[in-house]
Amino acid sequence: MESSVSKGRNLVFAAMGIIIGISMVTIFFNLITGVHQSFVVQFIRFVLTCGLCYLVYSGVSWARWVCVILMGIACFLGLSGVPSIIDNPLLGLVSFLYFAAYLTVILLLLIPKSVGEYFESLELKNH
User: Fold this and answer.
1) pLDDT > 90? residue 39
2) What 3-state DSSP class applies to 35?
3) Residue 38: left (phi > 0), alpha (psi -120 to 50), or beta?
4) What share of the chain is helix, strand, coil (3-state, %, to 5)?
5) What is the crossing angle of helices 113-126 and 4-33, to 10°?
6) Of 6, 23, 57, 61, which one's alpha carbon is 20 to 30 angstroms from that of 123?
7) Could you tell me if 98 and 26 are in contact, meaning their C-beta atoms sit under 8 angstroms apart?
8) What pLDDT score does 1 carry?
9) How confident is the model at residue 96 (pLDDT cuts 50, 70, 90)?
10) Which helix (H) or strand (E) segment is 1 a member of?
């Protein structure tokens, strides 16, 4: 039987995987669609995202809350694109998928008791 702490660690790992996966997919689609955003800017954003995910996984409390706030903003922005489903169904679907993924990350970081126990165990280990 899996302990609550390791279950929490796995949920945090899954949440960080979702965030990094979304970043990679975004970079990929920007490259193939020719969006006029510099690859350097995308790469820097990806590195910062990976750094934040590492800090969250390591149990840094402020990083967890920064991540939740940023995901909340991204969730809102993703939801704001859903009404475009009338004009462009693909864009509306992509916006909804972003919304759902970011909401999943928020819920994974805030709700499960095992995630809280995982962060508490890291806090005890670091002190």
Assistant:
1) no
2) coil
3) beta
4) 85, 0, 15
5) 100
6) 23
7) no
8) 40
9) confident
10) none
